[in-house]
Predict the 3D structure of the following.
Amino acid sequence: MSISSHIENKTLHLQVIGALTVDIFNEFENAYTQKQLDHIIIDLSQCNHIDSGGLGMLLQMRDRMGQDANKITIKNMSHDIQKIFEVVRFEQLFKMV
């Protein structure tokens, strides 16, 4: 479980590798805090699991970005993770592609 990230033109590109759980909370939070960002793109193509802690981490990120659904894009999620997002109605809180 880890993340990979880089910033390009005030956009943070963040890739979750393995599981999105509280085990990577510090690494996840450090990727976007204390930075001047206009947009965050989260790539879940390498993510195989997300739990309630991971969902909470995404909500905390959204709060820090001003609760604007267009400032965070979540992409390349597996069918199982997409189903979880649908159950908790994340499609209303984040831009998903």
Summary: Strands lie at 2-8, 11-20, 39-50, 72-75, 95-96. The chain has a mean pLDDT of 95. The first helix runs from residue 25 to 32.
